[in-house]
Amino acid sequence: MKRRGLLLLAAFAWSGCIRAPEIVMVDRATALEEQASGSFKSVEQRLARAGMSPTPVPLTPNQLEELGIQPTPLVENIGRTQADRVDELLRRHCVGEGRDGLLVDTRRQCQAGRLSSDDVALVERVNRARLHLWQWMRTVRPDLTEESVRRSWQQVHAKGVICGGWVESDDGTWGEKKC
Questions:
Q1: N or C: which end of the chain has fewer CB within 10 A?
Q2: Phi/psi class of residue 120: alpha, beta or left (left: φ > 0; alpha: ψ in -120 to 50)?
Q3: pLDDT digits 0-9 by tens, 88-125
Q4: What is the mean pLDDT of residues 149-162?
Q5: Which residue, 89, 124, 137, 130, is CA-closest to 110?
Q6: Stretch 138-152: mean pLDDT, rounded?
Q7: Are 164 and 91 in contact (CB under 8 A)?
Q8: Which strands form 95-97's sheet, in the order they lie side by side?
């Protein structure tokens, strides 16, 4: 019995020194575990906000032209004059030089783009300025008729029309000016 007592005493002595390791339970995942499991809260919130906010739909330059909107040029046209704009309209066949000396709206033959309201206003201004010029020329030379003043001015002016510009011939047909 002594032996048993010693064994019991030894068992109690050893039991005080030997313990199981402490186990710590974590109820939250670490940031790396959250990323690995696919929890991207901030990205999901930005995506939800972007889905709710309306944005314009991009259109191609051809679609804009069909709507009558001139695409923005790649180079700024700061130095463009009204004469440059008229030359461009003549080249595109949207406007033609009539045989009576006035600009004529020929938008049915327009090759690129459309005739904007600014272009129509420009054509009207140019025609009004030409009429005023012819009236002034008649005051300088009252012996000439209005028709002869127009015809002589138109012959001189036709030489300065841009190459490829849309012009009306004497027989009433339209064509490009050859240079």
A1: N
A2: alpha
A3: 889 888 899 998 889 998 888 888 777 888 888 999 99
A4: 88
A5: 89
A6: 88
A7: yes
A8: 103-105, 95-97, 166-168, 174-176
Whether residue 63 contacts residue 133, with contact meaning beta carbons closer than 8 Å, is answered with no
Residue type, 100: D
- Euclidean distance between CA atoms 1 and 127, whole angstroms: 135
3 state DSSP class of 103:
strand
Instruction: List, as own/partner pairs, every contact residues 148-155 make where C-beta atoms lie below 8 angstroms and the sequence separation is at least 24, other chains included.
Output: 150/100, 150/101, 151/101, 153/101, 154/99, 154/100, 154/101
CA distance 16 to 139: 129
Q: What is the pLDDT of residue 173?
A: 87
Give the length of the chain: 179
**Statement: the pTM of the whole predicted model exceeds 0.85:** no
